[in-house]
């Protein structure tokens, strides 16, 4: 099956003071993708408000989710959703869950398992996986955490309480096959969803993220893990999130932040394209 790309420049789910860089990041990736296969879901310009949820800028997040759902329902190809912040995964995974029980590869430095109550930042991108589990869209047993290494206490407790599985890159293929078999045994048709937050990569490999965490994956391990997962189970959808490049000027040349040496995002973009290839080929 061929892939369609859906670019969602949502920044309202990020807790970063420079969250709007995610808009530049989404735009830079979009320019690299094949035009005919690429769609864009606009995020509102305004920040939005919590609407009583305790979630920062929730009204905008809800609006983007509705727009994304509408766009995804019009596509026949396998959707690759390009963020924006990780919060875009809610609508994307909700959509994938309509075609089967989701086995979820969660490649991210963060588990995104906070609630509005436990979150230190109140930012939705740190709550999205928890919301999917609490809303019954994904079973905690079907989630494979890859590269997760920066946890809040409440998240670590939740992982323990649900016995959520953490896998290394070379365990991914076997772990996906095992969860797929368990789903079939229970009478469900399983599908694979692959979530990649770019901060799963080591900061030495990839620089353009807002919340880097040391001791991440190298690029070859990540793309191999994605390939192994896809060899084990058909991909129903994927997400690539949190590209936050250094400030980009109008003519596309990079401007250094904080007076540092001029920052070159060329390596980051080529890494992104290799991940996109692993998700879409
Ligand atoms: Mn993350």
Notable traits:
about 280 residues; alpha/beta; Arginase, Chain A; 8 helices; about 15% strand; binds manganese (II) ion
Q: What is the compact description of this entry?
A:
This protein has helices at 21-32, 58-73, 89-96, 128-134, 153-161, 172-185, 219-232, 266-280; strands at residues 3-7, 38-40, 78-82, 101-107, 143-146, 165-167, 190-197, 235-241.
In this structure, how is the largest beta sheet organized?
8 strands, parallel
Sequence stretches where pLDDT stays below 50 over 5 or more residues = 249-262
Classified in CATH, the superfamily is: Ureohydrolase domain
**What would you say the CATH architecture is?**
3-Layer(aba) Sandwich
Bound molecules: manganese (II) ion
Assign a percent range to the helix content.
25-40%
- CATH topology group: Arginase, Chain A
Please identify the structural class as seen in this structure: alpha/beta
Question: Per the principal axes of the C-alpha atoms, what is the gross shape?
Answer: globular
Assembly form of the protein: single chain
> Which class in CATH terms?
Alpha Beta
The count of domains is 1
**β-sheet strand percentage:** 5-15%
Counted by DSSP, the helix tally is: 8
Structure description:
The chain is an alpha/beta fold and 281 residues long. It has a single domain, classed as Ureohydrolase domain (Arginase, Chain A), CATH 3.40.800.10. Helix content is 34%, strand content 15%. It is built from eight helices and eight strands. The chain has helices at residues 21-32, 58-73, 89-96, 128-134, 153-161, 172-185, 219-232, 266-280, and strands at 3-7, 38-40, 78-82, 101-107, 143-146, 165-167, 190-197, 235-241. The protein has an eight-stranded parallel beta sheet with strand order 2-1-3-8-7-4-5-6, sandwiched between helices. β1 (3-7), α1 and β2 (38-40) form a beta-alpha-beta unit. The longest helix has 16 residues, at 58-73. Mean pLDDT is 94; it is low at 249-262. Manganese (II) ion binds at residues 108-110, 197, 199, 211, 242. Manganese (II) ion is lined by residues 108-110, 197, 199, 211, 242.
